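Table S2 (continued). Query chain:
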Amino acid sequence: MATTVLTGLLITALQAERLQAEGALRANEEKLRGLYELSPLGIALTDMQGSYVEFNEAFKKICGYNKEELQALDYWALTPRKYAAEEARQLESLQSLGCYGPYEKEYIRKDGRPIPLRLNGMLITGSDGKQYIWSIVEDITERKLAEEEIKYLAFYDPLTHLPNRRLLKDRLNQAMTLSSRSGHSGGLLFIDLDNFKTLNDTLGHDQGDLLLEHVAHCLVGCVREGDTVARFGGDEFVILLEELSKNQDEAATQTRQVAEKIRVTLNQFNELDGRGPSSCSIGATLFSGHRDSVEELLKQADLAMYQAKAAGRNVVRFFDQGMQAVVNARVVLETNLRQGLHRNEFVLFYQPQVDSEGHMTGVEALVRWQHPERGVVSPYEFISLAEETGLILPLGHWVLETACMQQVAWSTRPALSHLTVSVNISARQFRHPDFTEQVMAVLDTTGADPSKLKLEITESLLLDNVEDIITKMTVLKARGVSFSLDDFGTGYSSLFYLKRLPLDQVKIDQSFVRDVLTDPNDAAIVRTIIALAHTLGISVIAEGVETKAQRDFLAGVGCHAYQGYFFGRPGPVDVIERLPEGCCFVPCDTP
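Corresponding output:
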């Protein structure tokens, strides 16, 4: 009898436990179903043939189809053919790893409009024993629009819609590379409108802007479709001519013909009641490969343009050896640079980097040349030369090693031990096959803390071999080193590669910060950069902050790290060490 009663009690208890478990399971299923239906991300279940089995409301909204229409379609009906190769790679990943993505592609909506998406998913086995694919689909339209907006604002002149100075330099660099391979010459025309300032002051800026638009239209009509017409600033335009003759004399003739066509066209151009420009001065230079740098070619064309001005205006002048004094000075500088490396004439200055409360969080190490005769030489005079000649390799190694030694010295001082030291790494230095090993060796020999070392790279690094760059960055990040993308927004490749690089920080270039309060274009670029970086989980620092108004604007749009003269100029190490503990560079908003 007792056994029967005990058995009954056990059965009752087990039934109660089972009912409780079933209730909990149903509750969890309801929660998951709620999350599934309310998710802003599209979620879809497909079979291995691509037919849609299940999907949430967000997925229907993304595609533009209702439930019955989607169930009659399959995955391939929404996917453009251009993604076939990528789809094959993702399917291979799914079959071998059990998951795919994340990757980006487009769907074709019901209304025929392509929509950019980010997808990832996993392989599951259903209760029927069959395999299915769960996919998460994110609409990235807003991010793509932001990328296009910042690309346009950064690389095109908003008045004339021509490429600006940044894009011209990028295209000139590419043209020089192409010239090296093909053997064809290229030409550069630097055009300045004669007496434009007088006309602008007389008729007003609105009329001046209208004139610049008409001039831009005329210039585009004077060149081939593959040539580049850029507005360099103000009333200055630059034209890049590519694929000219391999013969230098013939290339010079071709360049002169285009220049004369422009000169004659603008002479005939007589807008604004006959008060338009009657002439322009044009400077020209030729290039073949990378014999000269981008900056040197622009300087040559600029010098030739001033020769045209000096010759009475309304003429074309080519750069020649009579203007070579500037180039000769460069040769002397290179000789002095080599001697300076051997004589230990270089020192590091440090510029504070501060947070939103004005507390110093780090410093940027900046190399200075203490020339025995010229005094302190700015890096603007010698860094590009060091890069071109290869001297940047020993110089860059010295900078890295010295900065790491300084970080170790500060680690023993409580007031400075928290500082991160940022070191600029040139493209040539980073591309060196042993760069990763060199950084590791410096960390080992100096004993520096890798987490206190930040390497600043520029967008010029992204022009080629990006996979190798990512590999090197990943190895160093595993050691604890962090990375910042310097001068962000001034290069042409950053938007495409930003999400692929293992970055910790982007630095807004001072060229945008300088006029952020007066130039709506720069303000829009800054806002977009900050929003894009925050979306990708990357911190932002602004350089070139010189006034409290600039700092306040940046803080208002979400940038809370700063560097610039407002907080401190670059100075020798003792300047940093003399700062009082807890020094606040600007008044704190809170007591």
